[in-house]
Amino acid sequence: MSANATHATKMRYRAEYVHEPGVIKDVFDGSHYQTLLKTVVPAGESNPFFYFSDERDIALGLSTDGFGPFKKRKQTCWPIILFNYNIPPEFRFRKKYCIHVATVPGPKKPWDWDSFCWPLVQELIQLEMGVKAFDAVSLSLFLLHAYLILAFGDIPAMALIMRMKGQNGISPCRICDIKAISFNSRPHYVPLRRDKVPGAQPRRYDPSDLPIRTHDKLLKQASKVEMASTSAKREERAKKYGIKGVPVLSCISSISFPSSFPFDFMHLIWENLIPNLIEFWTATFKDLDHADKDYVIEKHVWEEVGAATAACGATIPSAFGAPVPDIATKRHLMNAEMYANWTLFIAPIVLRGRFKKPQYYKHFMQLVELLKLCLAFEISEVILNQIDEGFRLWVEKYER
Ligand SMILES: [Zn+2]
After folding, report:
1. How many Å apart are CA 2 and CA 11, to the nearest integer?
2. Burial of 344 (0-12, 13-18, 19+ CB in 10 A)
3. Gap from CA of 210 to ligand 1 centroid (Å)
4. In terms of Cα–Cα distance, which of 162, 200, 167, 168 is closest to 181?
5. DSSP character for 180?
6. Which has the closest alpha carbon to 158: 271, 35, 270, 267?
7. Interval between CA 168 and ligand 1 midpoint (Å)
8. In this prediction, what percent of the chain has a pLDDT beyond 90?
9. How far is residue 98 CA from its own chain's centroid?
10. How far is CA 181 from the centre of its chain?
11. How do the domains of the chain map onto residue ranges?
């Protein structure tokens, strides 16, 4: 791409990007990238240089997820994809600019993802030190550097890459060291308040002061797991830390654990939070006893909500995205985009006055407001604090 004048010019986006302190509108405004700008690359010991000090240095992101290539079979493949953040945001996620580096063949989830990722890691280490390339803009040879700065995907995919236990563990979170509790032998659950659960420690977590994981601590814990003298000790430590071992991506100096592994909005919100809320409202969330609970919307009322949702399709221009089907009877046809459209534009209208107690509608609308703030193309520090505070209050209210 650097040898092609059109692409090389497009890739100048990063060098020309102006970071405005206190404003977030691109990955280059994030604290991780901003810290790298002031950090010397360890590979350049004899001839020190900073990350991204050459205008042509490239920032990369990695993503992976399992997908079923066959509709009626359960086998999955795991493509490993790189994104080139030097390309302007309006182009960078288009198919022709996504770099497909590998696919882990199925039929099952890769047992040892690191073994499949190793050839890529070797190339990324070379790119950190620099590889000879031709620059079509200045018509000269130069040392091209590319740095992997983040990776994203759903929680199981991230657990695989980070070699962590994932959402069902006792330490289920990759960002903080919050401990899960088990109640009536149900799967682990991670409430902030656990004062009513016998023996749970601590009694309560303060959402504004969670035990955040740091790079050094996380990797120290990972090596403690690896260094265990017996397999029983290893398993005990893995459980305690929620870490299975040292991930191969820790060889890449531009990656920081866990801040290079942000939560992916699509999976977190549209594929998990909203479907889970709907399952609560329709009394189908897991095998909990939902009988006579205030948050449950009666079956015939929910069917009316579904019919009203489907009817919206006739009057919403297609430019707003895929029309949402009857959410009561055809929810299996819904994808993330439909959940987003429903939540942001349709639900506020069709859910009004449908709950037994208005507090549930109000609580949902508080979520909608927060999601709208998250989806803005530009977020100021003031709004970021509002989002942070808003989600804390929303979760505390949810628990109440
Ligand atoms: Zn956490």
Report:
1. 8
2. middle
3. 7
4. 200
5. P
6. 267
7. 13
8. 85
9. 18
10. 23
11. 5-154, 164-246, 265-399
CA of 177 to the centre of ligand 1 (A): 6
Span from the CA of 307 to the centroid of ligand 1 (angstroms): 38
pLDDT at position 345 is 94
- Rounded distance, CA 124 to CA 157, Å? 20
Residue predicted with more confidence, 200 or 333: 333
CB of 110 closer than 8 Å to CB of 160: yes
CA–centroid distance, 271 to ligand 1, in Å, is: 19
CA of 178 to the centre of ligand 1 (A): 6
Distance CA 343, CA 266 (A): 13
Report the distance separating Cα 94 and Cα 74, nearest Å. 28
Residue 301: phi, psi to the nearest 5?
Answer: -70, -45
The Å distance, Cα 207 to ligand 1 centre, comes to: 9
Distance 227 CA to ligand 1 centre (A): 26
The Cα 220–Cα 223 span in angstroms is: 5
Q: Is the peptide bond before 258 cis (omega within 30 degrees of 0)?
A: yes
Alpha-carbon distance of 96 to 50, in angstroms, equals: 30
pTM greater than 0.85 (yes/no): yes
Strands 140-144 and 58-64: unpaired
Q: What is the CA(76)–ligand 1 centre distance, in A?
A: 28
- What's the whole-number mean pLDDT along residues 126-148? 96
What are the pLDDT digits (tens) for 64-80? 999 888 888 888 999 99
Mean pLDDT confidence for 394-400: 96
Q: How far is the CA of 259 from the centre of ligand 1 (A)?
A: 12
| Token representation of residue 40 | 């010397």
| Tens-place pLDDT, residues 156-208 | 999 999 999 988 889 999 999 999 998 777 778 899 999 888 888 899 999 99
